[in-house]
Design a protein that fits this description.
One of its GO terms (cellular component) is preribosome, large subunit precursor. The protein is an alpha+beta fold. The chain has 7 helices and 11 strands. It has helices at about 1-35, 45-80, 110-120, 125, 145-155, 170-180, 245-255, and strands at about 135-140, 160, 185-190, 195-200, 210-215, 235-240, 265-275, 275-290, 310-320, 325-335, 345. The termini are far apart.
Length: about 350
C-alpha cells in the first residue's frame, strides 16, 4: 500500500512540474508576441508621444512610396531602352470605377437610343434646323446677386434675352415665350439673397428640368479672370453615361448653337462627376515653346556642326472667364412646368441614396 501511495505522489509531482513548464512557455510566447506587435498611435495615451509616433509612421510610409515610384520609373526606363513594353500601371480604386452596375448605361451600338434621339424634343435644334433662342427670367423675389449672375449667363449663352419677372405667373410666361418662338426658358430661383436653383423648360413641348445650384462664384471673384468675347462657344459635355444622364445632357446641349466659332477660342464645359455637374467657362490659346534637347547624361545635345538642337513644343493655356457653379438634378418632368397635374420622368428622393457608389447620371 505504501509503495503505491509513494508512486502516486511522485506521479503527481511530475505532472505539476510539467504544468509549470507549460505555463512558463506560454508566458514567454505571450511576451514575444507583445514585443513583436506593432504599437498603434491610438493605443498611446500621452498626446505628445502619440503625435510623435504618428509622424514617424507617416514619414516611413512616404519613404516607402517614394522607393516604389523610383523602382517603377527605373523599370519603365529600362524597358524603353531595351525596346520592350513597359510594365502596366496599376489602376487605383476610386468611387467612380467601382460604381454599382446600372442597366441604363448607354452603349455605342444602342439603336433604340439613336432612334429616340431622332424623335425627341431637341432633335430639330441639334440637327441645326432651328437656332436656339433662350428667355431668362427670375423668381418673384429677386436677390442682389441674382442680376449679376444673370448678366454673366447672358454672356455665356448666345442669343439669350432677359425679361423681368414682375408679378406674372410662370404659366403665362411659358405661353408668351411660345408665341415669341423661344426654344427654352430658364428661371433663376433665389433664396436668402443667393441663387439656389435653375429651372430649364424646353419649348414648346417640354421637358422641364429642375437643378439645384450651389457653389456660385462670379467673374469678379475669380483670380486672374478673363473677359469673354461674343463668339459662339464650343460645348464640352463629359461623363453623362446613363439614359437619364444622356437626357439631361441633351437639355443642356439645346441651349447652345451647334456651330461654334473656333476663332473665339471659347469653351463651355459641363462635367458630370458623382451626379454633380460642374460648370466652367474658359478661353484658350496655343503657344509654341522651344525646349533644349538633352542627353541622358545631362549634356546638351548638339548636331554635327556643334550647334545646339532645340525642339518646339505646342502647349495650351487656359484662362477662366466665369461664372463658376455646380448643378445637381432634382427632377425631370414631362411637358412644360406644371406642379399639380404634371407627370415626372424622374424625381430624386432621399431613400434612393442607399450607397456612395450609386449614381444616376
Amino acid at each position: 500500500m505504501g509503495g503505491k501511495r509513494r508512486k502516486s505522489e511522485s506521479e503527481a509531482m511530475e505532472e505539476y512540474g510539467s504544468d509549470v513548464e507549460l505555463d512558463r512557455k506560454e508566458k514567454k510566447k505571450k511576451m514575444e508576441k507583445g514585443k513583436t506587435r506593432e504599437i498603434l498611435p491610438s493605443m498611446i495615451k500621452n498626446k505628445e508621444k502619440r503625435s510623435a509616433v504618428h509622424a514617424k509612421l507617416k514619414h516611413e510610409k512616404k519613404v516607402e512610396k517614394r522607393k516604389k515610384l523610383k523602382a517603377r520609373d527605373a523599370e519603365e526606363k529600362r524597358a524603353l531602352e531595351l525596346g520592350e513594353e513597359p510594365p502596366p500601371r496599376k489602376i487605383p480604386r476610386t468611387i467612380e470605377n467601382t460604381r454599382e452596375n446600372d442597366e441604363t448605361v448607354c452603349k455605342p451600338d444602342d439603336e433604340e437610343l439613336f432612334a429616340g434621339n431622332d424623335a425627341d424634343e431637341f432633335s430639330s435644334i441639334l440637327k441645326r434646323e432651328r437656332t436656339p433662342k433662350i428667355l431668362i427670367t427670375t423668381s418673384r423675389f429677386n436677390s442682389t446677386r441674382g442680376p449679376a449672375f444673370i448678366s454673366e449667363l447672358l454672356q455665356v449663352i448666345p442669343n439669350a434675352h432677359y425679361y423681368k419677372r414682375g408679378t406674372y405667373d410662370l404659366k403665362k410666361i411659358v405661353e408668351y415665350a411660345k408665341k415669341q418662338d423661344f426654344t427654352s426658358l430658364i428661371v433663376v430661383h433665389t433664396n436668402r439673397r443667393e441663387p439656389d436653383a435653375l429651372l430649364i423648360i424646353g419649348l414648346p413641348d417640354g421637358p422641364t428640368a429642375h437643378f439645384k445650384l450651389s457653389r456660385l462664384v462670379l467673374r469678379k471673384d475669380i483670380k486672374n479672370h478673363g473677359n469673354p468675347t461674343s463668339h459662339e462657344p464650343e460645348l464640352v459635355l463629359t461623363n453623362f453615361t446613363t439614359r437619364l444622364g444622356h437626357r439631361a445632357g441633351r437639355i443642356i446641349q439645346s441651349l447652345f448653337p451647334q456651330e461654334p466659332n473656333f476663332r473665339g477660342r471659347r469653351v463651355v464645359t459641363f462635367h458630370n462627376q458623382r451626379d454633380y455637374i460642374f460648370f466652367r467657362h474658359h478661353r484658350y490659346i496655343f503657344e509654341t515653346k522651344e525646349s533644349k534637347q538633352s542627353d541622358s547624361k545631362g549634356k546638351k545635345g548638339k548636331d554635327g556642326k556643334g550647334e545646339k538642337i532645340s525642339q518646339q513644343k505646342v502647349i495650351a493655356r487656359l484662362q477662366e472667364c466665369g461664372p463658376r457653379f455646380t448643378l445637381k438634378l432634382r427632377s425631370l418632368q414631362h411637358g412644360t412646368f406644371d406642379t399639380k397635374g404634371g407627370e415626372y420622368e424622374w424625381v430624386h428622393k432621399p431613400e434612393m441614396d442607399t450607397s456612395r457608389r450609386r449614381f444616376f447620371l
